[in-house]
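Hi R.,

Here's the chain you asked about this morning:
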Amino acid sequence: MDANRRHDPLSESVACSESQTYPKTLVETRRMFMAPKNDVIRGITAPVVSYRTTEVNGLDVFYREAGRSDAPAILLLHGFPASSHMFRNLIPTLAKEYHVIAPDYLGFGQSAMPPRDGFAYTFDALSDVIEKFADRIGLTRFAMYMQDYGAPVGYRLAERHPDRVTALVVQNGNAYDEGIANDFWIPIKAYWKDPTNKARRDALREFLQPEATKWQYTHGVRNVESISPDCWTHDQYLLDRKGNDEIQLDLFLSYGSNPPLYPRWQEYFRTHQPPMLIVWGRNDQIFPAAGAEPYKRDLKTLEYHLLDTGHFALEEEGDTIARLMRDFLDRHVARA
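And the predicted structure, written out as tokens:
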């Protein structure tokens, strides 16, 4: 090689196996990272995730979307205090074979946060908005992934429209009294019993503090260092918006509307027998494994997995959950 010629590592091939491809030139590298339709890394194309907004009743509903519009659909419903951000890693792993949609509820994430005097922050209202959202984007049949708040939102949809639901994936989402018969719920249940008591409402503000948000992500995990602090800092930033604390306290109160509906949801399970995959963080102290066990009573097509992690199981067991979901959905949801 000419000794005066400047060495350019990007102009040379890199030794690799036949199954791998690497850029040979700087031009190819630039093309890869400027590709308009796909992110390309070492010859592997990753589905593009789009970030969109649509209007429901004049209010902006933000959502993430990926995959072919004619593929079987999966609606991802997030928990508290999260948003569709919790599905950021799951969406691309499913989108090659499924049409994946993850909205933010009103008052959460990037969706509108209307004032409380113009919108009632209840689970009935949140589920109504998600139902209209699904209609708005043309989502007529879908599987649902439900975590935490996603369960009462999703089960309301399923009960109203059982013909639309192809399958259910439940991750620490409750439908039985056993799932809230633990110490975490004592102050919340006290508020349900006396909703005009300001002291009982104010006692729940500790659940909105940074330490509590971090605790939801880190308690019960095997390796705290594997959990990105972006998770709780992202959520806390949104919780700290002016007026959002009162919205969340309203929803703590509204959660009391869910247990009276448990018998109806359980009847839905027994009558319609939706295929269900349970992927539950067994170390969760909000919705412990005691809430997962009763599903076995009512569902015949049930796959049950308790994972050695906490409340936001996707953060530590995302690869496992994605693998279990793909296998389950491939067998129970017809491909387009």
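The longest strand covers residues 59-66.

Let me know if you need anything else.
M.
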